[in-house]
Amino acid sequence: MFTFDNTTIILSATLVILALLTSLLNPFLRKVRISEHGVPASVTDTEETKDADDTAGEAVNTTEEVDVISATACTLPSISIIFTPHDNAGELTKYLPFYLNQNYPADFQVIVVAPQNDYETSDVLKRFADNPHLYTTFIPDSSRYMSKKKLAVTLGVKAAKHDWVIMADICCRPMSENWLMTIASNCTEGKELVVGYTRYEDETPDYRHFERYYQARYFMREYQHHKAYGCPFNALIFRKSIFLKREGFRGNLKYLRGEYDFMVNKYAKGDNLVLENSPEGTLIEETPTGKVWLGIHLFYMENRQHMERTVQHRFLPYLDQTALHGNYLLQCIALIVALLLGQWTIAAAAGLALLLSVTLRLIIGKKALRRFNIDIPAWKIIPYEIAVAWKHLGYRIKYHRANKYDFISHKL
Questions:
Q1: Does the keyword Membrane apply (predicted)?
Q2: Could you tell me if residue 170 is inside a domain?
Q3: Per-residue pLDDT reduced to its tens digit, 53-97
């Protein structure tokens, strides 16, 4: 029967209040700004004018167009893009043209650093040899005491003819031909790092889409509060001069992966980092295989042990997941016990609290996903939020069972 004594009222109110409060401990609720500047307006205006004139059959004033593009080129830096493919001849064939054909009014070069014995990659590069933007170099067959990836990036940086350098992944493609212009427009006075947002292609399983975005929100929020920790994305701009002055990857050369994380963790200070996450500044990454997906998590667990500010970075995710699971657990226990004891008032309050929790998290989550054009059915949000912690636990178990020499280049 329904009772309304003090104890019942307090317990019922507590359940409802906790449902409301724990819904606020949610990465989807914390504001993440989307970059607004995008492509410089002068270039956009010129292209729109040109399209309108072509439609009308009128001649474009070429002199004025050249003047606008020249002015825009003066505000954009000359830039070098580095790719370090390893057995990625197929991806290089598909995606290299996207970068070589970027709409960029200033000078840019694309540097590909490939293994010396990767003949398939060499054959692909020969097809693009006539492109004036392409520069190719190779790394030695063996590298005993240093990650080959880090060695390749270092060689690429040294080969770069421009001070601003982009480290990117050839398994990704730009979302538009204005990608380079968009991300490079952040290279301004006082900035030393620019992180470019990356998302998986639409064919990727929903859970991997969800987890990638769920974790990325913590990193993006840190960027916008000038507390950068790592980089889960596949595009990073930095200055060649600073990279060489501070000896590049020194301090983490032996770790096989984690180039983006180590760079941000070492070089980000105060407000010297900018995030570019507008649609035109986004890279689309291929769907990861099961092996690649597992490797991402295991190598991250190894690398974060050698990064600064790890405890601060992990505090908020742990708090969110503790609140999430604690709230649901409390509601379910209260509902079951109240039903067994016939405490219908508390049972109704527990049911209401559970309904409030689910409804609020669905609304908040769906809105956040929609802002970044991630199309995941709303009903999947709750189980996916819960699954994040349990899958993380599974990765931790696999990491602790793994041979730690698999994560480093030193095999002695």
A1: yes
A2: yes
A3: 444 444 444 444 444 444 455 689 999 999 999 889 999 999 999
